[in-house]
Structures are given as structure tokens and as C-alpha cells.
Amino acid sequence: MAWAGQGRETLLAALHSLSIHRLRSLLTTVGIVIGVAAVIILVALGNGLQANFNAQFGKLANQIIVVPATGAVPSGGVARKLTDQDVAALQDPQRAPDIASVAPSMTGSVSLAEGQAKDRASLVGATLNYLELMDRSVAVGSWFTPAQVAGDARAALLGGQAVELLWGPGADLSKVIGSPIRVNHTTFRVQGILVPDGQNDNVVIVPFGASRAYLVGNDAGKVDQIILKSTSVSTVDKAADELTDILNARHYIKTPADRDFDVRTFTALLAKSTQFLNFLRPFIVAVAAISLIVGGIGVANIMLVSVTERTREIGIRRAVGASRRAILRQFLSEAVMLTGLGGFIGVVLGVGVTEGGGIILPKLVSSLPAPVLTCAPVLIAFGVSLVIGVLAGAYPANRAARLRPIDALRSE
User: What is the percent of the chain with per-residue pLDDT over 90, rounded to a whole number?
Assistant: First the structure.
């Protein structure tokens, strides 16, 4: 139990010494406080970015989009358009077993008008399974019925941005439902409002048949794009190969350079974005760690000043029998207490700012993801603050312990 008594005595001596210079001790911990809080806050922001990215784009990992190629075919041949017959061929499970669902769509830019308000928006002529394929949902109102999609019903769904531009911010969505709206020169009736996704909110969606009948025409069964989903994320490449083989055969493509269509998958984009985020997180931690290093240098500097100021005190303690180990223990304890106190305050500050930011930030900027707090950065940041205390106090403590009693007593 002797070690326990020595430890208690050392801690009390360290606390007494720090309490004598309260302001200096508090200012010394500022660098540690900022460093620990910065690590927690920045890592939480990085986690929030990662979580938001996964939520928005992870669901599109098995999505494939086919669009007509732009420009002339390299071989000089005639570029064929995507057609209803191409869609039917891709829906054949015998030829494309790894394709789960297929939907053609018509696209373009149209003018919208409601009363005196006018705007332009993206047009989508959609089939019944469009929302499922694009992972979107209806906030208010309802999606099209099979009869509306099969016919040419003049019904429309609007994105949130289109609603704001026509009816103004804070519009009563329940009153928007059922309102007439001019799309180009044809009157449609608003049937629903989409849940915002932060990307395609200035959009008007109408039934596939209505888009051809009133807005873009039915150019021999031409479709502007074909949206597909593979049976799983692991079968995206197989599904892309299957659809490429089918369209190559239908369009009489002999070499890849002559393809008159482009196949776009999101797996490469997701992989690159994930790689970037994985690189960004340690970079963020490194930036925050600089504050901890600067704080550690400040602690080392103050401890050296403390040793210089208390040289005579050290000489007296050594003269009455204090060992070098006791002197070393005392100054190390003071350094660790300083950084430990700073680490604790930094944890409280970092957690408080992160939790507060999670509530306030999404309200101030809707596109900014809320930070995600985890235990690991909190524990690591606090642990590193203690380690910095040991490292920053090691040299000053060793210097104090090596002072000869006679030299220390002569010090003025």
C-alpha cells in the first residue's frame, strides 16, 4: 500500500501546485481543449458526410441507365434510337436473367405556368415502376394509377423546388394538390408532390403516354432513356453485359466503338466517392491533431518555466530526502493533470457542439448533413491528451529530477 500513499501524496502536491497558478494552468490547457474538441467535431462531420452519402447514393448502387450516344457513329453508320422494342427485349428474363426491372422514360425541358407564375423544369414521362427504380416517394397526394400510365391522362407530380417557384416557399401543399398547371401548352392537374431528394427537385413527372401525346411526340416509339435495376449490387456487371449484348444484337453493333448507346452504372462513381471520403477522414483528423500537438508544446513550455521557477523548492525537497523518482513523478503528474483537464473540457465542448449542430445545422442549411457522433473519437482524443501530457512533461520532469540539491539551493 506504500505506492498508493505515494501516489496520493504526488497527486495532492500536483493539485496544490496547479491551484497556485490557476490562470496560467487554465490558459495552458486551451490548446488541448481546442485540439480534443476539433477532433471530435471534425470526425463527427466526416461521419455525417459518409452517412448522408450512403443514404442518398447507396440505394442507387444497382441502378443502370441506358441513353442514346451523342454524336455520330465512328463507323459512319446510322445511329439507331432506343425504342419500345428495345425495352421489351430487355424485359425478357430468358435473355436477361440478372435484370430485375426495366422502365422507359421520356425526358426534356418544359415550361410551367400557374396563374402569373412561370418557370422551366425538367420533364419525365414515367411508367408505373419509375418511383421504385429511382428510389423516390410521394410526400403528398398519390402516384399514377395503371390506367393513367397506360392512357394519356393529364396528371402531374411536381418536385419540391418546382412547387416553391410557382406557389412560393411555404406553400400549403394540400392546396396545391388538384390545382391546374400549364405544361408547355397543355393543362395538367397536380396529383402529387415528391419527397425532396436534393438533386432532381425542379421536375414535373407525367404519365408516359401523356408525355408522348401532348409534350414530346411519339417518334416511332422512341424513348429517351431506359432505367434498369439489377437483381443485386453484385450482379450489376452481369446485368450491364446482358443488356449490352441484347442492344448490340438489336442495333447490329459489331464493335464496341460503333455502339449508338451509352450504359451508365453507379458502381464506379460510388467506389471513387467512397475512396475520396475514406481519404478525407484521416486528413480531417490530421488537421485536428495539429491543435493537440501545439497544445502539447504549450504544456511542455509551461512545465519548463515551472521547473525554472521552482528550482529552490526542488533543492529543499531533495535536501530533506525526496528521491529523484518522487520529483519526476510530481512534475509528470502536473503535466498529465493539465492535459487531462484540457481533454475533459474538450470532450464536453466537442460533444456539446456536435449534438447541438445535429439539431441546428439541418434547420439552417437543409442540404448540410447532421454530424454523427461515435464513442471512438471521443475516447481516442481524450486518451491522446493524456499521452501528450506524459510526453510534454517527460523532459521538464527529468530535468527537475536530475538537479543536484546543492545547485538547486544556490538558485535565486
Answer: 19
The pLDDT tens digits for 305-322 are: 776 666 666 667 667 666
Same domain, 247 and 350: no
Kindly state the helix (H) or strand (E) to which residue 291 belongs, with its residue range: helix 267-309
φ/ψ (deg, to 5) at 71? 85, 180
The answer on 120 and 14 residing in a single domain is no
Per-residue model confidence as pLDDT tens digits over 159-185: 988 999 899 888 888 888 999 999 999
What gap in Å lies between CA 99 and CA 308, rounded to an integer?
Answer: 77
Per the confidence metrics, is the pTM higher than 0.70?
A: no
Scan for cell 463527427, then name that residue.
Answer: 44
110: left (phi over 0), alpha (psi -120 to 50) or beta: beta
DSSP state of 177: T
Show the CA angle centred on residue 311, arms to residues 309 and 316, nearest 5°: 130
Residue 3 is predicted with a pLDDT of 45
Tell me, yes or no, whether 233 and 92 share the same domain: yes
d(CA 274, CA 82): 33
Average pLDDT (213-232) is: 86
Strand 117-126 with 203-207, pairing: parallel
Q: Which of 238, 265, 292 is the last residue of a domain?
A: 265
Residues 143 and 253 in one domain: yes
Provide the domain count of the chain: 2
**Whether 132 contacts 115, CB under 8 Å:** no
Arithmetic mean of pLDDT, 281-290: 75
User: Rounded distance, CA 39 to CA 28, Å?
Assistant: 18
User: CA-CA distances (angstroms) from residue 143 to 136, 289, 327, 400?
Assistant: 11, 51, 77, 78
CA dist 163 and 305 (Å) reads 66
- Which stretches does DSSP call E strand in 172-309? 180-183, 186-194, 203-207, 225-230, 261-265
Q: Which domain holds residue 217?
A: 62-265
Name the most confidently modeled range: 7-21, 133-147, 370-384: 133-147
Same domain, 248 and 167: yes
What pLDDT was estimated at residue 136?
Answer: 87
